[in-house]
Amino acid sequence: MKRKWIAATAVAVTAGLLTACSGGSGDTPKNEKVTLTYANWSEDQSPAMKQIAAEFEKANPNITIKVQTLPWPEYWSTLQVGAAGGTAPDAFWMLADHFREYAKGGQLLDLTDTITSNKIDMNVYPKPVSDSYTYEGKVFALPKDFDTNGLWYNKALFDAAGVKYPDDTWTWQDVQEAAKKLTDPKKGVWGIAAPIDAQGGFYNTILQAGGNIINPDGSASDFASPAGIAGLKFWTDLQAAGESPTLKQLSDTEAVSMFENQKVAMYTSGAYWALRFYKNPDLKDKVDVAPLPQGVKRATVTSGIGNAGYAGSKHPEELKKFLAFLGGTKAAEIQAATGTVLPAYQGTQKPWLDSMPEFHLQVFIDAIDYSVPLPVAGNASEWQGLAPQFLTPAWDGKKPVEQAAKEYQDAVDQVLAKK
Amino acid sequence: MAESTVRRTSRARRGGRTGSTWPIHVLLVIAVVFMVVPFVWQLLTVFKTTAEVTRIPPTILPADFSLHSFETFFSTVPFWSMFAVSAGSLVLRVAGQIVVAALAGYAFARIPFRGSKVLFGLFIVMLMVPSQLFLIGQFQLIRDLKLLDTLPALAIPGLFSAFGTFLMRQAFLTMPGDYEEAARLDGANTFQVFWHVMLPMARPMLAALAVLTGLYSWNDLLWPLIVSPSGENRPLPVGLAGLQGQFGTDYPTLMAGALVCSIPLVIVFLALQRQFFAGIASSGLKG
Amino acid sequence: MTTVATKPVRRPTGRRTGVSKPSGWWGLAFIAPATIGLIALYAWPFVSTLLKSFQDVPAFGPATFVGLDNYTTLIGDGDFWKAFRNSALYTVIILLGIPLAVVLASLIEQVGRGRAIYRVLFFLPVVTLPVAIGMVWRFIYNGDFGLLNYVLSWFGIDGQFWVADPRFTIYAFGVVGIWMGLGINLIILGAGLQAIPKALYEASSLDGAGRVRQFFHITVPLLSPSIFFVTILSVISALQMFDLLFIMLRGVNNTALTDSKTIVYLFYEKAFVQFDQGYGAAIAIVLLMVIMIATALQFRLQRSWVFYG
């Protein structure tokens, strides 16, 4: 019985919507007041989102935007229940690894027409990001921002250990040597943080070793290949050498907090931390960022948040207008000028760089050239959840990396084979 | 009424026992120390700086007294509006549940009707079902009633509680039937008997139920998130959980938030504790 | 409904006094609000979950009937058995808190002045937000700068990563669970203690019995119905443990979570994180069966140890 309501709502809502849109009859009279909700999961970014909403309201006095922030751990369950129940927010942030389930389930507003009618040039967005929100040739979200990874480092700790700051010439070996010199157990300082982190960590090193994460047709993973193992070993070696806090320490205190607390000297992660570090008076003068070190080649995964619309929205026309606005230059400029995040819209990144001149943020933009999209094949949220289970023994030194990688690969492949 | 009985027995027992009570106090104080240490630690942490709490070894007393944590908390979480939501839904839920549970508990305890046993059995079974299992069905009902994002949405599922009904049934079961019959002889109908005679006698248990229901209402996290998709009318635990996401390991701020959000209910409990304990003691929960 | 209701009305009622007992109509009227709520908000969702457990339910789109597939998958699912072991272990630890509660309750009962203060202090965790409790204990358990390890270091004991090391996680939660539940157990047991006639203690004192002897020969047997009740409640709530885990372990990088999931957590994860509501429903139904079996088992066992005076 229950299955019917999901099916019925989804079908009815989408069908109703499609006819409404294609007929162009869904327009509300100009003067009618309409309220749209816009959901995100970041308190850090919420002020900028509100500013963008206010800007949009100025141009569209009949539309009110309510920005709402959900706690990250509850974001996806709330969105899922809401979407299945017909009550999801009108506009919301989407991530590439959740995107497919929503697009496949018909929950997202098709923006293909909007792009044509608003003459939006999809080339202004980094291709890996815009591609990740395209499903069966249709675009369901416009890229909001993007992130590549860099090597964040603490200058004060480098100075104290007498180590030269990282730069774009650094290779894996340089990082390893620096980590060794920077580690000082007596002071409780480690060279680097080596958590089991896919996006900021081992995905990048696997790519740098010349491997793939998921093979191009999305049917199988590549963790147990020589490059995959090399990419994983980069981290397990650092763990084995005691140059990173242990996994247990990193469970109690997340890697980024370790870095903020100045317990680790290097931390590889995305551009999205920039504002937080900048706002922290203890860190502002001590922190900077360099490109990720090179392995066999240069590489970083990239992904970005997309602004998506809910197919069940009561006001699809207004929503499309809003989404187009979110994908445009004005919204990008606000994000950049407030230092919130690296906007996806080409050419609007300058204000972001200027907002935090002390940091060499250009490295994140330069990284687009060698970036690879975050793999999202199959039920991504399911197989990505497998990493800690299978990789922990390798990180803890209890299992050879080769064996853990093989088991991990098999488990991921099993999920990929399901759909 | 019941309170004085409780106090009388305790006084009598004190006289009846031999030996001094100081060894007992020693044991109890040791146990109490374990109980309150987490709270004391929380309180001390609130006044420290983030750098200080991550120092190894930790400091016991705050090195430089800082109120930064409260500033961060109040500037991030819209405390008063969330507090209003928490309080509003608590009042609705407590008032509603008391009425619903008292009526049903009275019927189960004192009015024989066909199917009573079976129905009561059903209530007891529902006690054993993990609450997460009801989430989706409850959400649909609230949605279909067009109550999403409203205060009643937060309270409605909590109005109907198998546990509350069970508790009230216990309370009415243990009451003597004499008053009831006397009232009926005077020509009162069943509702009047219930309302004017039996319910007032159940006051201590009502207080106990009010406190317990208030607790559940105040503490609920997942449900408010699900029924307020637009982000309006969110209570304090939601704000607190969000704080954890945002400030990861800024323990002073987290502890300050935990403290500020917990304190209102602690105050209410302290104010009601006499009635509460008397209620539990006077009736019912003796197994 | 109507047919059921009309009959009791005609039944001759009233006992010795001849005063009429309330009619069944009243009973139904009184029970109606609770029953309607129970059916709409609990029984119906429960039935729909039961149905879902026989279906493959994707996040969005139509479900398909799959018979017992979810259940057979579950039997072969190592994760489920791990969660089952964790929940069982947690429950056993929580049960260890009951003797502690019995001792403390009887100590409090013997105190005259100050009893109210003790009761309030033991009850404080019950009135504190679980989210807050999770945060405080997570901080106390921190392996690097937590209070617990610091205190242990005074005695020369090496610290551990209590919530980050899967070897300890469930035990660490068990301690918090006992700490949180003590207040409730104490008031239930306290109520039971007050029902024990004090004459029994006086008589045994005259016979020269000390406190310890009295505890084992009078308090425990006469309190056994309350102890039984506390045990039933504790087992039900321990098997449903979710909040603590949800708050204390859901950090981005917590590697202990894999090995520390409880049954309800697994249900939550399958149904709400991994878009697999059919499988989630099957987990929930199995959990309900486990709870019911555990409760029935206790009712059976009570004959051998619960003393109804």
From TrEMBL, chain A:
Q: Which CDD domains does the record match to this protein?
A: PBP2_TMBP_like
Against InterPro entries, the record matches this protein to: Bact_solute-bd_prot1, SBP
Keyword Phosphoprotein attached? no
Q: Which UniProt keywords apply?
A: Cell membrane, Lipoprotein, Membrane, Palmitate, Signal
Superkingdom per UniProt:
Bacteria
Whether Iron-sulfur counts among this entry's keywords is no
Which stretch is the leader sequence? 1-20
In its UniProt entry, what is this protein called? Sugar ABC transporter substrate-binding protein
- Native species of this protein? Planotetraspora kaengkrachanensis
From TrEMBL, chain B:
GO CC field: plasma membrane
Parts of the chain that traverse the membrane: 21-41, 79-106, 118-139, 151-172, 193-218, 253-272
Its Gene Ontology biological processes? transmembrane transport
What Pfam families does the entry give? BPD_transp_1
Reply yes or no: does the keyword Hydrolase apply: no
Matches recorded under InterPro entries: MetI-like (IPR000515), MetI-like_sf (IPR035906)
How is it placed in the membrane, per its record? Multi-pass membrane protein
Q: Where is the ABC transmembrane type-1 domain?
A: 83-272
Domain of life, per lineage: Bacteria
* Primary localisation category: membrane
Keywords, comma-separated and alphabetical:
Cell membrane, Membrane, Transmembrane, Transmembrane helix, Transport
Q: Where in the cell is it found?
A: Cell membrane
The entry sums up its family as follows: Belongs to the binding-protein-dependent transport system permease family.
Please give the PANTHER family that the UniProt record associates with this protein.
ABC TRANSPORTER PERMEASE PROTEIN MG189-RELATED, ABC TRANSPORTER PERMEASE PROTEIN MG189-RELATED-RELATED
Q: What is this protein called?
A: Sugar ABC transporter permease
Protein's organism: Planotetraspora kaengkrachanensis
TrEMBL record, chain C:
PROSITE patterns recorded for this chain?
ABC_TM1
Presence of the UniProt keyword Cell membrane in the record = yes
- Spans through the membrane: 25-44, 88-108, 120-140, 170-194, 215-239, 279-299
UniProt-annotated stretches for the region Disordered: 1-20
Topology in the lipid bilayer: Multi-pass membrane protein
Its GO CC terms? plasma membrane
Q: Which locations, inside or outside the cell, does it occupy?
A: Cell membrane
Keyword Transmembrane found: yes
Gene3D superfamilies in the cross-refs: MetI-like
Q: Which Pfam families match?
A: BPD_transp_1 (PF00528)
InterPro entries to which the protein is assigned, alphabetical: ABC_transporter_permease, MetI-like, MetI-like_sf
CDD domains in alphabetical order: TM_PBP2
Q: What SUPFAM superfamilies does the entry give?
A: MetI-like (SSF161098)
**Its GO biological process terms?**
transmembrane transport
Domain spans labelled ABC transmembrane type-1: 83-298
Q: Which family does it belong to?
A: Belongs to the binding-protein-dependent transport system permease family.
Q: What is this protein called?
A: Sugar ABC transporter permease
Originating organism: Planotetraspora kaengkrachanensis
